[in-house]
Write a structure and sequence with these properties.
The structure is a single chain. Helices cover 37% and strands 13% of the residues. It is α/β, with parallel strands linked by helices. The protein has 2 domains: 373 residues, Amidase signature (AS) enzymes, CATH 3.90.1300.10; 55 residues, no CATH class. The chain is globular and about 55 Å long.
Length: 447
Amino acid sequence: MANLPQLPIPAAGAGVLDLLRQFRSDRAAAAAYGEACLARSKAIEPQLKAFEYLPTDVAPKSGPLAGIPVAIKDIIATNDMPTTNGSPIYRDHVPAADAWVVERLRNLGATIFGKTVSTEFAWRHPGPTVNPWNPGHTPGGSSSGSAAAVAAGLVPLALGTQTLGSVIRPAAFNGIVGLKPSFGAIPRVGVHPLSFSLDHVGFFARRVDDVAFGLSLLAGSTDGDIHGRPLPALTVDVDTGVMPLDRPRLAVVRFAKYERAEPEQKQVFEATIETLRSAGAIVEERELTALDAVNWSAINTIILSEATVIFSDLIARFPDRVSDVMKGHVETGRTKSAMEYLAAKAAQDKRRTALSSELEGYDAVLTLPAFGEAPRGLASTGDAEYCAPWTFLGAPAVTVPAGFGRNGLPLGIQIAGRYRDDLRVLRVAKWVEATLGFDPGVPMLSR
């Protein structure tokens, strides 16, 4: 790593809005930045293994995202690059059309900066990506490459997906900001499905402003995604970003599983509570007992049932090119009855509706994004139980970095809110981010 192409560390850690402001007054900087990102990605990739495919053309285009390299998770279709879906079945597959989000990004002038590693079909069989803070640890998943690429400063923005915890958890493990918008906020046309009722498109970046800006540009609807539901108007000014919600009222939700969290994660969480309270937030303990009792079993019933429908034929056609992990999940899915599935869907609808009244008087929930640091090794991408409630409900969730654990790996906190109340959650997250004032920086792998 001694011969890395030079890109100043502040630039490697620059945010989308920072760059756009710079490019506005210095057009040549956009071209230089794209070339530097590509050169550094090529140099780091043999160790990081974040990309399935890197771009050949990084020349800046015209539009609101001109000069911004955006990495694309490799279950999201691109018509000029392979889309492998994390599977040897699709190793050489180049789709005929872009996914809705990719077409939208191109029209906005973004540079489509390659395809990032995904676990197999965004489920639980890991890829080769390592954590840029320590290559002996997982970056999380299933959006492994997107999270690692942003954390390493190779791109300022990346797309991921979340069906259980695949944006929030890897963002926390890598010390960056992750946003899972409300269910249906971004069309999923051209995104390989895992669960029709749970799949979300989300963002990785270094600042809350940047994921908010991404959402403001990509939120929409199309007849091709029957689950789409446009968000209330959301605009983000490049010069000011999101207006923080000063001194919010926060509900601290620990869930029964809190005792399983690592001591350092608990310490960071408790310190965050005290810091926010000292800064003027009203922070109160709140139990969501009914949600806690049902969400983990119900969300897994939905995933297993719907994924079994999606993948059974693929397994029958290509049994030697599908992991034993996926085969096992599909076999489990076949044991789920129609009554179990319908009961889980009914619980999803009931609890989503109930959340509004359960959070009455609060602006957002403050909780954990994971049980602690990224686990050692690459065999597992970590436990998603703290992400599951908000995916189950389709509620917006943001994670921001808040500290480090015993192994020097990042720890985060999670802010969640009511379904379709994305702007309020982002405004709270912006205030939390500014109040904590914590910037983990760029990991040594990238220096």
